[in-house]
Amino acid sequence: YIYSIVYQPFYFQYSISWRFNMNVLRENAIDTGSFPEIIGKTFDKPTMFIGGERSHFLKKEDEADTKRYFPSAEFHYVPGAGHLVHADRPQEFINICVNFLSESDNSETVELVD
């Protein structure tokens, strides 16, 4: 299923190319829906989640649970985009990323904290 989504010619018409590690995706397909056991740990640095409004993977109703692990998280839902936001709406995706990275000091090494 993932292969059929990722390797559609439509996604290769943009000047920016995105690469997927299909071997890793195939080997870990079962685990992609799970979350590692990190109870009691948080990541408190700026974090951004970008989802398409038509995606079933990043849902607004999950924001509160996500914020338990990523208290500084911000969420962006791109209108008209599915799961592959960067391919469906590349300019919007890039704008969101550039704005986030411009506002964040991401120069330090970060770790999960207790």
Features of the shown structure:
single chain, 114 residues, alpha+beta, Rossmann fold, 5 helices, 11% strand, globular
Molecular structure report:
The chain has 114 residues and is α+β, with helices and mostly antiparallel strands. The protein has one domain (2-103): Alpha/Beta hydrolase fold, catalytic domain (Rossmann fold). It has helices spanning 2-6, 22-27, 63-69, 85-88, 90-103; strands at residues 47-52, 73-78. Strands 1-2 form a two-stranded parallel sheet. It is globular. The mean pLDDT is 78.
What's the arrangement of secondary structure elements?
Blueprint: H1 2-6, H2 22-27, E1 47-52, H3 63-69, E2 73-78, H4 85-88, H5 90-103
Parallel strand pairs: 1-2
